[in-house]
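quick one: magnesium ion bound model?
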Amino acid sequence: MLDNEKITLAHGAGGRVMQELISKRILSQFSSDILEKFNIEVSLADLDDSAVVNDIVFTTDSHTVKPLFFPGGDIGSLSVAGTINDIAVMGVEPLGLSCAFVLEEGFPISELDRIITSMGTSSKTAGVPILTGDTKVVERGSVEKMFINTSGIGKRTEQLDKNIEIVKKYRKFEGRWLKDSNLNPGDKIILTGSVGDHGIALLSYREGYGFETELQSDVWPLNKMLQATISVGGIVAMKDPTRGGLANTLNEWSEKSGVGIKIDEQLIPVKPAVHAACEMLGMDPLTIGNEGKAVIGVVPELAEDVLKAVKGFTEGAEAAIIGEVKAQKEQKGVVMETLMGGRRIVDAPAGDPVPRIC
Ligand code: MG
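yep, here:
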């Protein structure tokens, strides 16, 4: 990079440009020999949903969604559910959150009240307390209205240990955590519900396209559903397909696990309004961000049992087994069998097709 280069929106979009910023500029400065004093089983360099240090699961996320209120949620519910989900997909129980507000001078107290009420409701729904926080106010014009950062911690459970024991009955499994790099050929891929609801509901509302009348964000804390699935056993990896959508999640899994992934378009739930909006806007629902969905990698022998557990929850009612993992010699990257009977490569989006949704 040249000295006069500046940050662009793409640097925060979750795609390749952001990955480059992290790997070239950030990781090199944050890795040092002090790390050796700690038992770090999932590190910053893993770029997973959370890190794990001395058996504590830890994650953080800043929320800059625009507008602050949208169909189905607001920045408050999003900031609570988003961080809980990043902990929950590690297969552990979230213990608590921090919450830090950056507010612009002049922000209406009535709106702040609505947002805080919404955070409280999400926290109660999930059964995860907000334990510590911070509030800063900056001069008018120096931020846009409000940003919220939430961090969260989680702890390992007996169920996670049992889940991994069960995996080991069926195949080799290394390590003690559900990581993006854990997939093996033969594993099945479960998606817990329809894709694109959050991104399209928000975009449509923001731009006035009209689809928001029949569509809401899926923002929801998934910890209870995911804990129930872990109790079934056989799960090797989980991820919430947020920025970059399902396409990004599956490509991360494929790259980090060194496997191919085959999915079937016919099996992927897409709501009619999302389908219609994507047709109109020339977008791919697989690349649109979700805030209340998880992708689960599971040994084939237990895929139906895990699916059944997911479907027992309202938030997982539309879940489906959408594909399976292939050996790289058989298939590289992520490939989808299309409704037309063809095959297409599913790439990770380079940037964010819908900016400012989380
Ligand atoms: Mg995540």
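The first strand starts at residue 40 and ends at 42.
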